[in-house]
Design a protein that fits this description.
InterPro entries: TPM_dom (IPR007621). It holds the Pfam family TPM_phosphatase. This protein has about 270 residues and is of the alpha/beta class. The chain has two domains: about 1-30; about 35-175 and about 255-270, Diaminopimelate Epimerase, Chain A, domain 1, CATH 3.10.310. It has seven helices and six strands, in the order αβαβαββααααββ. A six-stranded mixed beta sheet has the order 1-2-3-4-6-5, with helices on both faces. A hairpin with a 5-residue loop joins strand 5 (about 260) and strand 6 (about 265-270). The longest helix has 30 residues, at about 180-210. The termini are far apart.
Length: about 270
């Protein structure tokens, strides 16, 4: 009888544990990996660090962040590969499937950032320009971990600005943090401006001390009933023409979109590294 009770207690304990464990397992099984290092550019420790960092941003802003490295795009363009990988592997949060995917393909040294859902608005053409200036140079130098960390940090910054204010764009530019060299530059400019002001101030004071001032014309020294000038003529020796170029139209802000093979709208930007 005692053994029967122990069996039922054991069975009840298993059932109770399953209530808590199975949903977690199911959630993990249904969540695609955020860091897919098919090209083997990262260590396991680096992958885990990126996953942890990405999880923080995704939880805070409800926008998927994905990093994919591959040996090849298998005949697809980098844009098509990135868009299809996002669409076909269950990435994106919410009905709009909000998310950003960074692809790095080693075969032709291509990179591409694909945006979806609300991320299309958050990552404007201006913002993608900014990312293009910072991520590919790190890929070129082989600093892959730093490039991916920069990607995640910029994504967090862009999503925060969109939520708290509005997306970074030509009318809401990114404010670069000041460095020591910036402050030294401002100091040199301040000293130079001060020196110029002091020079003109002392020059003005010196002129006021002079009592003999040259006259601008000779008539001051000529008697009124003396020489009479009856005719005069201006003779120009040369002339110069200055031209100012018209400012070029650099286009407007906002985001551009295209349609993937699955019929979904994506934004993005790519290139070589």
């Amino acid at each position: 009888m005692l053994r029967g009770k122990q069996f039922y207690i054991f069975l009840g304990t298993l059932l109770l544990l399953s209530i808590f464990i199975l949903p977690v397992i199911a959630a993990d099984a249904g969540t695609p990996d955020k860091v897919v290092d098919g090209a083997g550019l990262l260590t396991e420790e680096e992958e885990d660090a990126l996953r942890s960092r990405i999880a923080e941003v995704v939880s805070r802003y409800q926008c998927d962040l994905v990093i994919v490295t591959a040996d090849s795009t298998h005949g697809k363009t980098p844009r098509a590969f990135a868009d299809d990988y996002f669409d076909e592997n269950g990435y994106g949060i919410g009905a709009s499937r909000n998310g950003v995917l960074l692809l790095v393909s080693m075969e032709e040294r291509d990179w591409y950032i694909s945006t979806s859902g609300t991320a299309i608005r958050a990552f404007t053409e201006y913002g993608l320009d900014y990312m293009e200036e910072r991520i590919p140079p790190l890929l070129t130098s082989g600093d892959y971990m730093e490039a991916f960390e920069t990607f995640v940090s910029l994504c967090e910054d862009f999503l925060r600005e969109t939520e708290e204010n509005r997306p970074y764009d030509i009318d809401n530019k990114i404010r670069e943090p000041k460095t020591l060299s910036d402050y030294l530059f401002y100091l040199v400019i301040s000293v130079a401006v001060g020196a110029v002001i002091a020079f003109f101030a002392t020059s003005s004071m010196k002129r006021k001390l002079k009592t003999a001032v040259p006259q601008p014309a000779a008539h001051t020294y000529i008697r009124e009933d003396g020489v009479q000038i009856t005719k005069s003529k201006d003779l120009y020796l040369f002339s110069s023409v200055s031209r100012t170029p018209r400012p070029k139209n650099t286009g407007g802000g906002g985001s551009r979109t295209h349609t993937s093979a699955s019929g979904r709208s994506h934004g993005g930007r790519g290139g070589k590294f």
